[in-house]
Amino acid sequence: MAPPLPLIFFLLMIHAFEKFDEFCVSGVSSDDWGVSYSPSHICALNDSTVIMRCTYTYPTRYQIKEAFWTNTSVTYPDEPPDLSKDPEYSQRLQYLGDQQQNCTVRLSHVTLKDSHMYYFRFITNITDGKYTGYPGVTLTVTDLQVESPERVTEGDSVSLTCKSSCALTDRATFIWYRNSQPLTERRDRNNELLLQSVRREDSGRYSCAVDGHTHVSPDVQLNVMYPPKSVSVSISPSGVIVEGDSVTLNCISDSNPPALNFSWFKGGTIVGSGRIYNISKISSDDSGEYKCKSINEHGEKYSDAVTLNVMYPPRSVSVLMRGSGVIVEGDSVTLNCISDSNPPAEIHWFKENETSAVGSGPSFSALQSGRFYCQAHNQHGSQRSDAVTVTVHHVAGRNVIVIAAASGGLFIIILIIIFILFIL
After folding, report:
1. 3-state class of 151 per DSSP?
2. With contact defined as beta carbons under 8 Å apart, do 145 and 218 qualify?
3. pLDDT tens figures, 262-308
4. 234: how many CB neighbours lie within 10 A of its CB?
5. 227-308: which CATH topology?
6. SS3 166
7. Class for domain 312-393, per CATH?
8. Quick one: which of 97, 205, 217, 391 could link to 102 by a disulfide (CB 3.0–4.6 Å)?
């Protein structure tokens, strides 16, 4: 027959008092029993080594049989686990204390999973002479994170902060990296990196660490915005440009964000838009100075001017003749060769129906009758002019020799003149 309820309640109360008595010995400090932790809260960096300093006391008539660290405070119904026997801790946990008063322990290569409250427990040679230091040491393991503005504009002052989820227990000296390279200049204030008047060269991936520790924070990109700089024009093809070629001008601009608005100018006149300006079948009329303007939301900038020098063969070759082209024997007429070409052409003069040149240079002096033309030539081609006619007239009496006789006879003089004209 089941015992009455009052009896059951009485038995439970007795059992509870027995356990309470054990808890008083095992979990609550008194004048004879105690565990002291210093400090009681530790904030440690991921992958660092932590030392939990500890001292303990117990009645002098007791002897220590076991002393260990655990992360479980429950002592009933089983003993809490000894971390030195736990595979996750056994290689990293080293007990530095003794079995008298010192219970210090070292835990290396801590990870975020090691964030717990840790307790020291010892067992004496007396039944129920067990004690757990409660509350224990609170260990918080933290990563490092860089806090940075996503976008800044050139010239701004920027502050980057190396943050942790808790205040590190050990005094920390912070180290900063840009693109995985340590920043040698000392611009840090506590856990802040101050960039005064930020430049475009300050763009990059930033991370931080604590001196003496291997853990480095994840990278954070600092994006420095700036107006167009170093604007220039490239020409393709880059060599000699000949009339009829297809030519491409490319506007090169360094800016952040990249420029999306481009304008092209020939002299002071706008001739196009877009990053690329293409001229198909270029002509000599396209020769001149070109420049581009690059624009983004932070400003604009012009490139230096570049010159397009379009080469072409001689054209519109003609002969300019001074006078009518009719001359008297012994005189000359000057012929000038007019030619449009780039580069300037070499000029040669020919008499029609003759293969050899009769002269060279931009002008030619004709002394005899005939049809003359010039031929202009450069490395891109040649062209000849139309021929012009030069006529030389023989004038009677041009070679008259006047002989004055001493007698002054008029008849003799007339005879001499008639004789000369007859010969001519």
Report:
1. strand
2. yes
3. 999 999 899 999 999 999 999 999 999 999 999 999 999 999 999 99
4. 12
5. Immunoglobulin-like (2.60.40)
6. coil
7. mainly beta
8. 97
